[in-house]
Prior knowledge:
alpha/beta, 40% helix, globular
Amino acid sequence: MLLQIDSISTYYGHIQALKDVSLHVNQGEIVALVGANGAGKTTLLNTISGLLRAREGRILFDGKEITRSSAAGIVRAGISHVPERRQVFDTLTVYDNLLLGAYQRYRRDGRKAIEKDIERVFELFPRLEERRKQMAGTLSGGEQQMLAIGRGVMARPKVLLLDEPSLGLAPLIVKSLFEMIAALRESGQTVLLVEQNARAALKLADRAYVLETGRVVLEGAAQDLLQDSRVQAAYLGGKVE
Ligand code: ATP
């Protein structure tokens, strides 16, 4: 088990946003976390990456407890978080945004290794290569999302946390974005994916958890959840063909 969340509860003041949540992610898997607005998905990712603190429970990563580690320490340990709403540096080029994604490893790995990884991101996202010198702020929404993910990959994380990558994107763009996330898995990348687009997420993922008002209410193989009548009624708008 690469990432293990053990009965965590997270609060905003005295509002409890996560209630006794447990889940795990194995090496090489894509695990999806689906749920409606306000279910606590972002809160969970922020708790894993150290932006919020769990009041109860434990988070283990790669055999070590990180529940109380700093956000910077958690990045160094190998967790990279791509937050909601694609936060890229608008006034930097595509290339420089990718370079910045690797700043934590710059001293350790050197420029050559990092340039090689940028080429690898370009292989995954050819659209970014065509636009390598373009200012990030002038990219389309889908391209910015690719760039945000590419920047996350540049940290060479053991786990990539993706928060709502499909948000605000047209269906066709979502489809190609999810194909790229599948390609990331082929390259060995482990991913924890938060999505409101349950159908796309379940089609892509190996396993999934359904979160409702801060609790895990269902979990299992993504294929099984796609066929589950409760999931279909609540999240897929009826039966899936
Ligand atoms: P969405 O898909 O809409 O982003 P989500 O599943 O990611 O939803 P969260 O953003 O994690 O949900 O929110 C979970 C709950 O915590 C919600 O009830 C929300 O109102 C509450 N919450 C989130 N951020 C704060 C905050 N800073 N202060 C107080 N309550 C918050």
